[in-house]
UniProtKB/TrEMBL annotation:
The keyword Transcription applies. InterPro entries: TF_GRAS (IPR005202). This is Uncharacterized protein. Signal peptide: none annotated. Pfam families: GRAS. It comes from Eragrostis curvula. Belongs to the GRAS family. A motif (LXXLL motif) lies at residues 18-22.
Length: 204
């Protein structure tokens, strides 16, 4: 059980974890899925903000050919981006190899529908957050030859880390529908002060 402190704001951060709870599209719809069970529980604890980072890829389709084709283009872009900045090494390749074995990812639009059905409301990122994310990315990639190929893409209030305009990872922010909406992401600095809050993190 989580040791939540009454009176403090609850923030939950999930980085590249939710896709592990997805099931095959042709699974029995009468059986609750792990992802739905988790999201129902999450809605119940009423987080003020729930941030989600996932692969921006369409790898959870019934058709094997679709999954293979989508994975081919996605990971080709991943390896190209790593090689361009000199980050293609044995550790990075081992990480991606393990990820490919568990290739069950979905696009941000499908995540948006799923989280909304669970009772979560998206907190769209605003222009200030976009400017800060872009500035940080430029700072990280400036030292690498080929780093100019990276960019921050905006779509429907979400951000994506892109390589030559191809989204690789998406980031969204949410809150439980019944939670206090006083803290809008539009006016919150990326990486700002955590303040007085509970923080639950789930990342690789």
């Amino acid at each position: 059980m989580l040791n939540l402190v009454p009176g403090k704001t609850l923030a939950v951060n999930s980085v590249l974890q939710l896709h592990r709870l997805l099931v095959d599209p042709d699974a029995d719809s009468a059986v609750p899925t792990p992802i739905d069970t988790l999201l129902d529980w999450l809605t119940g604890i009423q987080p003020r903000v729930f941030t989600v980072v996932e692969q921006e890829a369409d790898h959870n389709r019934p058709s094997l050919l679709e999954r293979f084709t989508n994975a081919l283009f996605h990971y080709a872009a991943m390896f190209d981006s790593m090689e361009a900045v000199g980050c293609r090494n044995v550790f990075a390749e081992a990480y991606l190899r393990a990820e490919i074995f568990d290739v069950r990812h979905e696009l941000v639009g499908r995540w948006r529908d799923r989280l909304a059905r669970a009772g979560l409301t998206q907190l769209p990122f605003g222009p200030r957050a976009l400017a800060q994310a872009t500035e940080r990315l430029l700072g990280l990639t400036a030292a690498f030859r080929g780093g100019a190929g990276y960019g921050v893409l905006e779509c429907g209030g979400s951000f994506a880390l892109g390589w030559h305009d191809r989204p690789l990872y998406s980031a969204t922010a949410w809150r439980a529908t019944g939670a206090d909406a006083a803290s809008a992401v539009n006016d919150t600095a990326v990486g700002g002060s955590k303040g007085n809050r509970n923080v639950v993190e789930n990342r690789q």
